[in-house]
């Protein structure tokens, strides 16, 4: 399982003539210039700008999903309203809807709004609770919370919104952390959607920049490309390591413990 990762790390330090020709895992000499080339960026755009663009999109997606999906989940899990059951079933059914089926209508809408070649098409839908998987995940977690806590808050004069922010939301932290981690990883690794909406190299992310190492003659700078792949992998690894305990807790828990 770890061999591909070890191969990626080793190849990022191989000379250009050994990347394809040699089957050895370890390079004959360490080619640190691969990382120097990767840090210089592509298309006159530094890697720090690319990294900032990726963090902006991933951070906006995380914030949008955590806010909108938690609000939608609270409505389905705790509030009583007409057609709650059919609406929840319809939302769950959208999980089976392929992303490519709605890509063209979404592109037409954002193009008419003049938002193509901006970050809004990649961030704005996240604030509209469009990720049914995360809504379902948080709903299942909220259903395991004791209703007596909200009833006590209601006796003290709390309305639905105040009960949500003061009582339910703090107890839902493991599910929210799980949502944040998966959203960050999926958005960071997303290539197709960013390729559709972003044209200006100054707005490229690390994912799009990796493709730019292939020039018009179809020759590739493999060493720097793998070096940039390692750099692009580091934020995901660090993000996961920082929150892995809460990730396991969020996936395994169904309510309060202890």
Automatic annotation (TrEMBL):
Record-linked InterPro entries: MetI-like, MetI-like_sf
CDD domains: TM_PBP2
Source domain of life: Bacteria
Gene Ontology, cellular component aspect: plasma membrane
Subcellular location: Cell membrane
Family: Belongs to the binding-protein-dependent transport system permease family.
Protein's name according to its UniProt entry: Sugar ABC transporter permease
